[in-house]
């Protein structure tokens, strides 16, 4: 069938070929990139979203071939659990029809579904991936969590060992007390 | 996992601390030895006088400014004071802050101040928010060439020329908000330059001439009185208009005629102000192009269903060929029965655009 068309009707075929090329171009625009997380799970991700990740951009600058080939772009410090969350966040925020109120509700729910450990893991992943919007959202959220909390809460939250001796800590607090600097 | 968490890099912790007021950031130095100096590299200083005892505020600000790591840039400096801080001290603090590549300055001062050149010629500044201040430039020239965002709220200028000079020196401005602006004096021949890069303007004051803003895409106006009227420029690029007015003129339709590319119109109707004049249908003038061709979204808030209001909405729906949504939010003093009648009247209007949705809240 194809051969027949080729020999008899060259003109329409040309158009069809052009059409096909056009189609290819549009497909290329919506192309996907293969990402591999630290636990060796591969994800096919819309290029429009993957290219928001600074780490992916950087990788493609060094080895541009990876965008076309089947090789996966390795994300050494991001586990599949985090990547799923990051993609969920970016797909929502990338969605053209999402209104301001939708995004606010989404963000609140997104945050509520994370425990503190997951939140910190996600922050490290966002930092590694170099995704600005999510990074700012997470750091701001963490600031809100520790705001007005007592010293022990914040130590536990960040897993800080207090390496001050009690005397040192007392003296240091004393030193700063004049300015009213204290933990509530 | 615990190991990984305790390895949150300092830069990242600093970013978290940058969202806290400086006092809280300093307090994290009690957490452990590692945290003792962390706050010193946070690129933000944020002081709110209300959270300090009155006698200690000034010294705290000095101390924290001096204790910061001097090599670290200071991106944002925020100072809110409500007891009338000594302006001389404020200028000293600002001189220190602006030397650290300051980008964002947010001042609410409750005092009268002559700002020094350290601020007015700060070449790194991109955002400047100023409120509750009586402000004069004396003869200091302004060079804020990187300033993109300027928000003024409850600011009284010594004279209108000070404001004009501030704008002239901020010639790359993109976003301007002006709320409750006052001038003590008016100089002869004060001229406002046009700001070529201005994209968004929000005006809630009587003291602003729209001529300076004729390039904008986004405009929000709360019209206070008729000063500056008769001077409505052609808003060639305006696509989004939010409009509210406390005076009878100009009529909404007259304003829209100056916005040939308007796509999104929001009207907030003030009580007892009729903005719509005679029935526009009776008007023999042609329908403005922006309504017939460009208008995609129209929102009417505080709708009371008067003849003029209804006439206007009917006119828009009948003539806007590309309207997608007409959103009407009724005045909350209107009872349910009346609301139903309003909705019925509106939904019976012929809609020229086949895809227009009417929503009534």
Automatic annotation (TrEMBL), chain A:
Keywords: Ubl conjugation pathway
Coiled-coil blocks: none
One of the protein's GO biological processes: ubiquitin-dependent protein catabolic process
Entry-linked InterPro entries: SKP1, SKP1-like, SKP1-like_dim_sf, SKP1/BTB/POZ_sf, Skp1_comp_dimer, Skp1_comp_POZ
A Pfam family the protein falls into: Skp1_POZ
Biological pathway: Protein modification; protein ubiquitination
Start and end residues of each SKP1 component POZ domain: 33-93
SKP1 component dimerisation domain: residues covered: 133-179
Taxonomy, superkingdom: Eukaryota
Family: Belongs to the SKP1 family.
UniProt name for this protein: SKP1-like protein 14
Organism name: Mucuna pruriens
From TrEMBL, chain B:
Coiled coil residues, start to end: none
Highest taxon above the source species: Eukaryota
Gene3D superfamilies named in the record: 1.20.1280.50, Ribonuclease Inhibitor (3.80.10.10)
Domain F-box, chain residue ranges per copy: 2-55
Pfam families associated with the record: F-box, FBD, LRR_At5g56370
Record protein name field: F-box/FBD/LRR-repeat protein
Organism this protein belongs to: Mucuna pruriens
């Amino acid at each position: 069938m194809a051969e027949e068309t080729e020999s008899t009707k060259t003109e329409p075929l040309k158009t069809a070929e052009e059409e096909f090329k056009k189609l290819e171009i549009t497909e290329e625009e919506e192309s996907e990139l293969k990402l591999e997380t630290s636990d060796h799970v591969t994800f096919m991700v819309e290029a429009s979203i993957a290219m928001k990740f600074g780490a992916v951009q950087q990788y493609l600058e060094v080895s541009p071939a990876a965008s076309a080939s089947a090789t996966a772009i390795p994300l050494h410090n991001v586990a599949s659990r985090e990547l799923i969350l990051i993609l969920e966040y970016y797909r929502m925020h990338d969605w053209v029809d999402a209104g301001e109120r939708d995004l606010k509700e989404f963000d609140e729910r997104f945050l509520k579904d994370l425990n503190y450990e997951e939140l910190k893991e996600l922050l490290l992943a966002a930092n590694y991936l170099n995704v600005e919007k999510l990074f700012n959202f997470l750091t701001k959220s963490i600031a809100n969590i520790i705001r007005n909390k007592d010293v022990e809460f914040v130590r536990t939250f960040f897993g800080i060992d207090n390496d001050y001796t009690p005397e040192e800590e007392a003296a240091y607090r004393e030193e700063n007390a004049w300015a009213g600097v204290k933990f509530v | 996992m615990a190991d990984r968490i305790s390895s949150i890099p300092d830069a990242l912790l600093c970013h978290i601390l940058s969202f806290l007021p400086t006092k809280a950031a300093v307090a994290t130095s009690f957490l452990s030895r590692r945290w003792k100096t962390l706050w010193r590299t946070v690129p933000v200083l944020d002081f709110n006088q209300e959270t300090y005892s009155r006698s200690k505020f000034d010294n705290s600000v000095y101390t924290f400014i001096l204790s910061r790591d001097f090599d670290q840039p200071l991106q944002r400096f925020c100072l809110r004071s409500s007891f009338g801080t000594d302006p001389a001290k404020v200028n000293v603090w600002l001189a220190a802050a602006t030397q650290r590549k300051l980008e964002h300055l947010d001042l609410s001062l409750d005092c009268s101040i002559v700002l020094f050149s350290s601020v007015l010629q700060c070449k790194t500044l991109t955002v400047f928010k100023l409120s509750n201040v009586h402000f004069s430039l004396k003869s200091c020239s302004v060079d804020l060439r990187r300033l993109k965002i300027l928000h003024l709220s409850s600011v009284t200028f010594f004279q209108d020329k000070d404001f004009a000079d501030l704008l002239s020196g901020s010639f790359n401005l993109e976003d301007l908000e002006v709320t409750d602006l006052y001038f003590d004096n008016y100089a002869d021949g004060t001229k406002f330059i046009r700001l070529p890069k201005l994209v968004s303007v929000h005006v809630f004051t009587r003291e602003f001439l729209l001529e300076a803003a004729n390039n904008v895409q986004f405009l929000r106006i709360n019209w206070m009185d008729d000063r500056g009227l008769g001077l409505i420029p052609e808003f060639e690029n305006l696509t989004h208009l939010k409009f509210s007015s406390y005076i009878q003129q100009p009529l909404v339709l007259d304003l829209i005629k100056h916005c040939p590319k308007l796509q999104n119109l929001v009207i907030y109707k003030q009580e007892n102000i009729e903005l719509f004049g005679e029935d526009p249908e009776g008007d023999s003038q042609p329908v403005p192009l922006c309504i017939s061709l460009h208008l995609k979204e129209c929102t009417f808030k505080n709708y009371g269903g008067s003849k003029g209001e209804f006439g206007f909405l009917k006119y828009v729906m009948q003539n806007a060929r590309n309207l997608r949504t007409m959103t009407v939010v009724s005045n909350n003093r209107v009872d349910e029965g009346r609301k139903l009648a309003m909705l019925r009247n509106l939904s019976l209007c012929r809609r020229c655009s086949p895809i227009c949705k009417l929503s009534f809240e």
